[in-house]
Amino acid sequence: MKRDENMSEKIGFIGLGVMGAPMARNLTSKYDVIVFDIDNARMGLVPKARKAENIGEVGSSAETVLLSLPSSDIVKEVVLGTGGLMQNMRRGSTIIDASTTLPDITQEISHTLKKMAGIFFLDAPVSGGEKAAIEGNLSVMVGGEQEAFEKSLEILHTIGTSVVRMGESGMGEITKLVNNLIVGITFVAVAEGFALGTKSGLNPKVLYEAIRNGWAGSKVLDVSAEAILPRNFKPGGTVNIHWKDLGYALELARKKDVPVPATALAHEIFKAARASGIGHLSQPAIVNLWEDLLKIVIKE
């Protein structure tokens, strides 16, 4: 099969988790991709990509490198640490961080890369879940320089249908934290509402059908019902990850002196779910907290 003209561009991808692996697979449809993950087996999830031995090999091979990593500290280490991307990428190249990273760390990384190495850095966290990652329909919220954004737009549209530049460095991550606090609070509201309805004698499946097209309707309601009613809490996102992201939102709110009491409560509920041993399950699994308290099971 003849390659199109974009296939000569080398793209790196580091972090092949639930979201990263499908994003990397979508990129292989248009670009030469080299991947790396600390779990060697996960690199097999992107069969059309070349497998790197380490982070440095990705950096030296690619003009643009995307990251999908579990924490801010890991992002910083991969980019700025010994043997990391800054030491191996060329001037004028670009790093795109699709992780959920603290805005302060994003800004620190961006400033260091520009000053020390002449490398662009975009924060480009994504939303939409595993299904959207597989389909290439993610929402991408971007912070960083306009030049780097325009240069990377075609790459970003390979993983997402909605790609919006929010402003300078860190603004994409701030947008993601706002997104995640709204989503987290809504997961809590859905679990609480289904528990109240079920304990009061409603059929939860009928309850869902009754409210889904009214003002309570939302993607979070749909995702929650699709998990709770058949008792399928297989993770895309997890309780653990959402607890971490709500914590990031609380940290930002403290720095900006913004009261976020609903976010704080949602964070505590996700923390309780982690403590109960279900942190590895999908976010709707927080409903188990109410089920255990009320001695009920919410199912179709």
Short synopsis of the structure:
By secondary structure, the chain is an alpha/beta fold. Helix content is 49%, strand content 13%. Helix 1 (20-27) links the parallel strand 1 (10-14) and strand 2 (32-36).
Question: What can you tell me about this protein's structure?
Answer:
The chain folds into two domains: 5-168, NAD(P)-binding Rossmann-like Domain (Rossmann fold, 3-Layer(aba) Sandwich), CATH 3.40.50; 174-294, N-(1-d-carboxylethyl)-l-norvaline Dehydrogenase, domain 2 (Orthogonal Bundle). It is 49% helix and 13% strand. It has helices at residues 20-27, 55-61, 72-80, 103-117, 129-135, 146-159, 171-199, 204-211, 219-228, 239-256, 261-275, 287-294; strands spanning 10-14, 32-36, 50-51, 64-67, 94-97, 120-123, 126-127, 138-143, 160-167. It is elongated and about 65 Å long. The model is unreliable at 1-7 (pLDDT under 50).
SSE layout and pairing:
Layout: E1 10-14, H1 20-27, E2 32-36, E3 50-51, H2 55-61, E4 64-67, H3 72-80, E5 94-97, H4 103-117, E6 120-123, E7 126-127, H5 129-135, E8 138-143, H6 146-159, E9 160-167, H7 171-199, H8 204-211, H9 219-228, H10 239-256, H11 261-275, H12 287-294
Parallel strand pairs: 1-2, 1-4, 2-3, 4-5, 5-6, 8-9
Antiparallel strand pairs: 7-8
Helix pairs in contact: 1-5, 3-4, 7-10, 7-11, 7-12, 10-11
